[in-house]
Amino acid sequence: MADLDDIRDGKEYGVGVEQCTDGFFLKGSNNLDLGMKDRLSRIFNPATGRTVMLAFDHGFIMGPTSGVERIDLSIVPLIEHADCLMCTRGVLRSLVPPTSRKPICLRADAGTSILTELNHNVVIDIQDAVKVNASAIAVMVSVGDAATEAETVANLYQAVDEGQAYGIPVMGVTAVGKDMARDARYFGLASRLCAENGANIVKTYYTEGFEKVVACCPVPIVIAGGKKLPELEALDLAYRAIQSGAAGVDMGRNVFQSEKPAAMIQAVGAVVHQGLKPAEAFQMFNDLK
Ligand code: 5RP
């Protein structure tokens, strides 16, 4: 029985004060449902609108490549510095501490490896993404690859349909094939295609003219780091991407293959969230352990 004693009449109605109707902070996301916005707010820091995703899903196509041989030893100590973790369900269940309290961007397509033809993938069951409490699911799209383009766009479509049903955002990951030009025209087309097909976030690569890629993509873009670069160059890459309008990074090898991964992810974080210039961030990298 509800306690009926001392039910006080309300007094503070704020009559004359407009209810706050601010828009949602993230590009192209204002019309999404609450679950989507809640999850996006975990991935992207509402204070800066940006994110540092730590990607360590590489083993799903590459196996134990350098830096991810022992996730427990190399990646787990970095988790505290990341805004979001991008990994497969296998590693999530076996190695990521459930007490991490970090949003997960779950690699949600699987099927091929670097030993065969890449990107003949299927999408994992959305129920599994729900079970592991994923804040987003990531699906590869290989625009321009005649053998896999239609298949991977269909995967994205399926992921978006299922993600919508459960309020889980989808990140479209633009693949780069050996025959694809790595320029703003290509990445602009690939990113836009992902967004048009319903991706809520797009992951692509930085290139000259990146501001055009960002401008014509209606949802936030994060950049992959790509192959390992000297730290100053990787910080410069992150800086230029952010200055061009990227909403963050989804970086793997340039963090976990660095000689000082913990220092590197913190320096990248300072570029992304505080706008540190590359030289300043490199100094920070050098100063940290
Ligand atoms: C591969 C991926 C990787 O997670 C992505 O490329 C980020 O890693 P890196 O910074 O090492 O390129 O999605 O499909």
Explain how this protein is built.
The chain has one domain (26-287): TIM Barrel, CATH 3.20.20.70. The chain is globular. Helices cover 37% and strands 14% of the residues. The longest helix has 18 residues, at 149-166. With 289 residues, it is an alpha/beta fold. The chain has twelve helices and ten strands. It has helices spanning 34-43, 59-62, 71-74, 89-94, 126-131, 149-166, 184-196, 210-215, 231-243, 253-256, 261-274, 278-287, and strands spanning 51-55, 84-87, 104-107, 109-110, 122-123, 136-141, 170-174, 201-204, 221-224, 248-251. The termini are far apart. Helix 6 links the parallel strand 6 (136-141) and strand 7. The relative contact order is 0.13. An eight-stranded parallel beta barrel has the order 1-2-3-6-7-8-9-10, surrounded by five helices. It has a two-stranded antiparallel ribbon with strand order 4-5. Bound molecules: ribulose-5-phosphate. The site of ribulose-5-phosphate has 13 residues, from strand 10 and helix 10.
**CATH architecture call:** Alpha-Beta Barrel
- SS strand fraction: 5-15%
Distance between the termini: 59 Å
Q: What are the low-pLDDT stretches, counting only 5+ consecutive residues below 50?
A: none
- Secondary-structure-derived class: alpha/beta
Supply the number of structural domains. Answer: 1
Overall pLDDT: 95
CATH topology: TIM Barrel
Task: Provide keyphrases for this structure.
289 residues, alpha/beta, TIM Barrel, eight-stranded parallel β-barrel, two-stranded antiparallel ribbon, 12 helices, 37% helix, 14% strand, binds ribulose-5-phosphate
